[in-house]
Write a structure and sequence with these properties.
By secondary structure, the chain is an all-alpha fold. Helices cover 58% and strands 0% of the residues. The chain has helices at residues 3-8, 26-47, 64-70, 73-87, 90-96, 101-114, 122-132, 137-152. The chain is globular and about 45 Å long.
């Protein structure tokens, strides 16, 4: 998720005078996950097209699985936008208020995350999608953030979600 800041750097120059390390709360991180989830699912399906059968859950471009995540995006946007406001230069905050920001943000973030997926990992991603499919999207977002909190406390974090230190144990 640290790449979110890089995507928004396309909108504005980074602030050279940042006095603190930008971070997001778990609730904001969950909103970010919920907001980008439909596009992440679509991009993962595209990325895994050669590694998964056409009937794979990740490759479906419509249906109840994707629709449940799409239904969460509008409600998640205000808190996701607050998180993005923390992670980007002050000059970009005004851009987040424009009508084109929400669709642009998701379309910029998803390829950066999914671009790192090795097609050999697609069967695992498909298994994960099938395991979480019965769960409400908010629970899935909460689990992802929980894993990021645990990961942030490890000696060599891999997820690099910029969670505020005080909220990592919650």
């Amino acid at each position: 998720m640290k790449r979110i800041a890089a995507a928004l750097a396309l909108f504005a120059c980074a602030s050279a005078q940042a006095q603190t390390t930008p971070c997001v709360t778990p609730a904001e991180a969950e909103a970010l996950v919920l907001f980008v989830a439909p596009e992440l699912i679509r991009q993962a399906g595209t990325r895994c097209a050669t590694a998964l059968p056409a009937t794979a859950l990740l490759r479906r471009t419509s249906g109840p699985f994707l629709a449940r995540y799409e239904a969460e995006t509008d409600a998640a946007w205000p808190r996701a936008k607050a998180a993005l406001s923390r992670l980007t230069a002050p000059q970009a905050i005004q851009l987040l208020d424009s009508s084109f920001a929400a669709p642009l943000v998701a379309s910029l973030i998803a390829p950066m995350v999914v671009g790192n997926v090795d097609p050999a990992d697609c069967p695992r991603l498909e298994r994960a999608a099938n395991l979480v499919a019965p769960l409400p999207p908010r629970n899935v977002a909460g689990l992802i953030v929980l894993f990021a909190q645990v990961d942030a406390e490890s000696p060599r974090p891999q997820m690099r979600l910029p969670l505020c230190a005080a909220s990592r144990r919650n």
